[in-house]
Amino acid sequence: MQLKISDYDDKIFEWISYNQFINIKELNKDYLFTLYSVKWKNGPLYWDTWNKKCVRRSDIEIILKYPHKQSIGEFLNEVKEHSINFDVFGISQNPDTGKYIIAFQEKLDKKYCIKCSKVYMNVDKKWCKQCSIIYLWENFTNWTSENEKIDNFIQEKQIEINYSWNNVFEWIPYNQFTNIKEKNEDSLSATWIDGPLYWETWNKKYIRRSDVEVILKYSHNIQRIDEFLNKIEQSLSTKNNMMYGMSQDPNTNYYIIVIQDIHCEKCNKDYTNISYKWCKTCQIKDLLNWTSGNEKIDNFIQEKQIEINDPSEIVFEWIPYNQINNIKEVNNNKFSTVYSAKWMDGPLFWDIRKKNI
């Protein structure tokens, strides 16, 4: 690998002593690989043009990849394959396990999955369909509805996901629901304790968003499993991203469809943004308790607030001057004076748990 260097900025492939790695943290683990983030104390070799020699850039963060099934031949093939899409610095060996390790960094474009080396299906979200399906497949043994047809149906739905934002259809034990309240004759509202799986881009893995409000829709008039699953299949074709999964009431044995709570509890209309439980109409009403003392300014600010279409957008406001302290002049010219200051209450932001700003 070192003999293949043809340019000054090519990575210099090395044997790296394992004691060079500190701050070791597990990133991900499946039946094929374990990934760790580490800090390399001495760091890799780089060509120093000024001094005309190779020097080390110390304390850089890199990724270690442990293939679980190893023969020397398979491992070295994996290293060569990895070098195509990643900046591979070299190999090492864990002295405790004897396992060989690939030490690498992602390239600047970061478009390749660090586990399987294939292009992410969704590059922005760092989501790989193949690895997501492997993760779900590995968890098939961690749950069961105790009905083979239902288990097979759920497994089929899980491996059909195509995007990072797709809901992962699951079997949800009934004891996961609290605060159960009747909505109508065939539906209940409830809080799902662990909450649904969602893709976290930063850590490149599925995590749960706990204490999520859901609707439990009962199947009173459906007795046969096949009929119930057909109904879900039909619903998934039109409401795929509203359904979290299935459950069963242990007291009545009725099967339940678990769906997102899409209705605003204040006005009972559909949320403008279902994921964030955000209702534009109600937010505008909540922003009316203020005045600048000038009708034109008040109208201008209200127009800006009405233009908001997403809970993540900044709320334009009238800010009383007594809210501002630690005022320091930054710049002064004939056109304007600029100050830095601290805003005591601070800006408004949407709180998804409290469903208010």
Automatic annotation (TrEMBL):
Protein name per its UniProtKB record:
Uncharacterized protein
User: What is the originating organism of this protein?
Assistant: Rhizophagus irregularis (strain DAOM 197198w)
